[in-house]
Amino acid sequence: MTPNEANRADLGKDPARVSGMFDQVAAGYDRTNTAMTVGNDVLWRAATTRAVAPKPGEKILDLGAGTASSSASLARSGAQVVAADFSPGMLAEGQRRHGSIRNLSFVQADATDLPFADAEFDAVTMSYALRNVNDPKKALRELLRVTKPGGRLVINEFSTPPGSVFRAAYRFYNSQVLPRVARVAGTNGDAYDYLNESIRDWPDQKKLAAWIREAGWSEVEYRNLSFGIVALHRAFKPA
């Protein structure tokens, strides 16, 4: 078994295996994402930042922050941003790139057992990370716990394109093209085989919205980005 195979995650989403896989791809992660999404990742990040609407003086949790690209975007508003992830390799890469931002801090954290106090954050957000948690419903409850009453949630996650023709083309791209692009970009292609599997197995927009409501969030809504390749979910903690 090669090192890549040893850390290849599967749909069991064992935290150690998923973390190890992301540790391996950390250095080339952002470059590969930009190549695979044909630059759409930049647009999706901007849409997420606008949805969070960070303000100076607020405290914001970016969970599953990876290399902290979204965290840095949020921190530019003047808010105090905590970039949290369970992959130490990702966090190390994020600190290398964005550690000079004074209102941005880094914390290793398990999404299902967050090391934060109740009602600590004005807003919480996750981008393309909830899908990798072995108990996403528990993670949604943990996010609710650490959010102040009236605080907001933004989840940006891969989703299901509603149009059948585009959906079929997208699934072909994910299964046949995406891993090859990852390998050309110099990243662990096995990790992107898992990415395709996790996207295919993930619930659609309406189902995720229902999970968010079940966790206790209110005013749940979503909108599709890039024809539904990803969906941006928003909600509030009841005041």
Automatic annotation (TrEMBL):
What is catalysed by this protein? a 2-demethylmenaquinol + S-adenosyl-L-methionine = a menaquinol + S-adenosyl-L-homocysteine + H(+)
Q: What PROSITE patterns does the database record attribute to this sequence?
A: SAM_MT_UBIE
Q: Where does S-adenosyl-L-methionine bind?
A: T67, D85, D110, A111, S127
Pathway(s) the chain acts in: Quinol/quinone metabolism; menaquinone biosynthesis; menaquinol from 1,4-dihydroxy-2-naphthoate: step 2/2
Give one GO molecular function term: demethylmenaquinone methyltransferase activity
Under SUPFAM superfamilies, the record lists: S-adenosyl-L-methionine-dependent methyltransferases
Q: What is its EC number?
A: 2.1.1.163
Provide this UniProt record's keywords sorted from A to Z: Menaquinone biosynthesis, Methyltransferase, S-adenosyl-L-methionine, Transferase, Ubiquinone
A Gene Ontology BP annotation from the UniProt entry: menaquinone biosynthetic process
**Keyword Metal-binding included in the entry's annotation:** no
A Pfam family found in this protein is: Ubie_methyltran
* Leader peptide range in chain numbering: none
Which superkingdom?
Answer: Bacteria
For this protein, the record's PANTHER family field holds: 2-METHOXY-6-POLYPRENYL-1,4-BENZOQUINOL METHYLASE, MITOCHONDRIAL, METHYLTRANSFERASE
According to its UniProt entry, the function of this protein is described as: Methyltransferase required for the conversion of demethylmenaquinol (DMKH2) to menaquinol (MKH2).
Family that this chain belongs to: Belongs to the class I-like SAM-binding methyltransferase superfamily. MenG/UbiE family.
Instruction: State what protein this is by name.
Output: Demethylmenaquinone methyltransferase
Give the organism the record lists: Microbacterium foliorum
